[in-house]
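Recall the central idea of this unit: under ordinary conditions, the amino acid sequence of a chain determines the structure it adopts. In this exercise we apply that idea directly, starting from the sequence alone.
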Amino acid sequence: MLKILKNILNLLLPPRCKLCGAIVEDDDTLCSDCYNKFDFITQPYCSHCGHPFDDVYQIGKNSSRMLCATCAKDKKPWFRLCRSAYKYQEESKNLILSFKFHDCTDDAKILAKWMFRAGDDIWNKGVDVIVPVPLHYSRLVKRKYNQAAMLAVELSKLTGIPVDLTHLIRHRKTRPQVEFSGHVRVKNVKGAFSIKSIKAFQGKRVLLVDDVLTTGSTLKECAKAIAKAKPKSIDLLTAARVC
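Accordingly, the structure predicted from this sequence is:
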């Protein structure tokens, strides 16, 4: 019965592309033209931070274990793995912007599906709890929702892994990171996060979730706060990343 009702509804109100509005076959998807504008991140990429390599760097079977120059030098990495679904570029950024600033909250579903696929390495290593990057309460009131939290909830539905929305907090109000670049981003979020309870993350495999990875400053500060609880591991997963 539900299938029949859905078919009738699709005839009256057919599903449409999340970007251009063209009629598509399934809900929460893109038309082929819009989909092809996205540069999804696939191998070869750094096996640690997930930064994509140019094809010239791919060396047969060893490409899945290659490190970028930054990760190769880092003797004490602050995260276990980092992955992102696609490159944040002019052609593809509108999906994130609409989701984040224009109340297109349904876009969380398609973004989370892509993140789920991109995080395959992370799921294989194991995750105990998914934690979104929190907003300061004043910005949450203004925006009405936390886009990272919505992504985390959708990922929880796909994986069955619980979400913790309360124990990582942004206790200091910061300016939007988009206003800054480089070292100013680091200074803007330095010391802005804390945890309510050591027990919430102690000994656990924590997955930090956000919409876009730019310099990593925000995620790093979140990880530093969680690290005080001595978790087993901290991984990072975003919908997009600036490359």
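Strands lie at 82-87, 129-132, 168-170, 193-195, 205-213, 233-241.
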